[in-house]
């Protein structure tokens, strides 16, 4: 059994105002899928993009919207759950004044 | 894209004081893995058990311990992350006075 506290997992920057904590990853021995926290700072836009694998998301804190190339799709707030399918375009925008923080599960990176 | 609010997903009882919300399941079109919330009421013990698939867990609220047949293994509190491997015995005990609530990801049930 592996036991961690999320706050002790380093926040790795991926772009200005956007970071990721790899809570459980293949180096921990995850058999099939990885658990991350994504953190997006107030005012930051994570532009729509896509990739050939799904996201399963649970919003922990903050306020935002999930977007696609056509515009805003839905509000994100604590307890919001999203299934983004493989190849489905998606982006995020923090619309609050605190960090938008969500769990995001992906298949194990190869 | 599927969008839900976790609180609107029904809590299905699985045993006295223990319930589960299937946030994202195969009927939602999950390609590989399912996202659930497990809720264990104050004072309730979920005895050690095992199954041939892993759990990836993130504690949302409450206080508890994760156990195995030999006893207590670790504290569970908000932000605690657990990887329980396939066939690894595990149980839970709510040691607080509020519901112990955690996200638990499993491979898609067959």
The percentage helix of chain A is under 10%
Number of strands of chain A: 11
Largest interface: A-B, 38 and 38 residues
Shape of chain A: globular
Radius of gyration of chain A over all CA atoms, rounded: 14 Å
Low-confidence stretches of chain A: none
Q: How would you spell out the order of helices and strands of chain A?
A: EEEEEEEEEEE
The tally of helices of chain A reads: 0
Quote the beta fraction of chain A.
Answer: over 45%
Strand order of the largest sheet of chain A: 2-3-4-11-6-9
Explain this structure:
The structure is a homodimer of 110-residue chains. By secondary structure, chain A is mainly beta. The first copy, chain A, is 0% helix and 58% strand. In chain A, the strands form two sheets. The first copy, chain A, has a six-stranded antiparallel β-sheet with strand order 2-3-4-11-6-9, with no helix packed on it. In chain A, strand 7 and strand 8 form a beta hairpin. Chain A is globular. Chains A and B meet through strand 1, strand 6, strand 9 and strand 11 of A and strand 1, strand 6, strand 9 and strand 11 of B.
């Amino acid at each position: 059994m592996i036991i961690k506290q999320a706050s002790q997992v380093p926040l790795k920057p991926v772009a200005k105002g956007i970071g990721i904590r790899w809570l459980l990853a293949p180096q921990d021995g995850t058999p099939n899928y990885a658990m991350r926290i994504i953190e997006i700072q107030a005012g930051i836009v994570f532009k729509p993009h896509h990739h050939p694998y799904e996201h399963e998301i649970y919003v922990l804190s903050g306020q935002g919207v999930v977007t696609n190339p056509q515009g805003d799709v839905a509000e994100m707030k604590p307890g919001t759950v999203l299934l983004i399918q493989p190849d489905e375009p998606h982006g995020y925008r923090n619309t609050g004044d605190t960090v938008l923080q969500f769990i995001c599960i992906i298949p194990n990176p190869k």
